[in-house]
Amino acid sequence: MKHTKFAIVSLLSLLSLAASAIAGERHFANVYETTTAAKGEFEFENWVTWKTRRGEGDNSNLWKFRHEIEYGITDRLQLGVYLANWTLTRDATHRNTTRYESAAAELIYRMSHPTTDALGSALYLEIEGGHDLFALEGKLLLQKNIGRFVFAWNGVIEAEWSGRGMMERTGTLEQTFGVSYQITPKVSVGGELVHEVSFEDWSKSGPNVLFAGPNVSWRFKRGYITAATLFQCTRATGEPDIQTRVIFGIHF
Fold it and tell me: Cα–Cα distances in Å, from 150 out to 31, 115, 243?
């Protein structure tokens, strides 16, 4: 009986350590996970997203940059502050344009854990503001870890006001799904799906757009690098044909 109790306590301790170790690491570049930073832990993240369109004289490239500081308020509540979101655009004439877009803040509250509970779940809220821009975004995050596999799904709703006088209103509904498999303790590979549809003035819906592609994540002692390349599976005009995102994070 004593050996059984010791084994149970040891197993729970190992699960707790594992949960703490993976709290701030990303297996996906476009899908949020339900784990949050430990209380008092800081993390610095850099995002680089490249989007490109090809064909019919619309050969353009867009690079989006985000710089975020995350902090564990509690073991379940995480605060993130995006210090600067900015873009670099290169049009068909090879002219480059740099633009500061916005700053943002997010809260993630974890309700259950993907390993120790039947299903991991969390709520996400982001507020973004900039020149002629204000946006609110909410997400339901679900995740399940099974052995070396990580499954994650996000349901997203976003409302954006932009333009002169904030008169342009756009709503977006989005779903993201990802699967990741841990090849070694440091390396994971998998795939991601992104489906989105926008609504002008929350009335007229735009085209359904679907992206899919592979991802890879490499973890090291105090951080990680995660990358994913998605290809448009639909024929929606005005949307990127290919987009690649790389996220580099380091813990403090």
Answer: 11, 10, 23
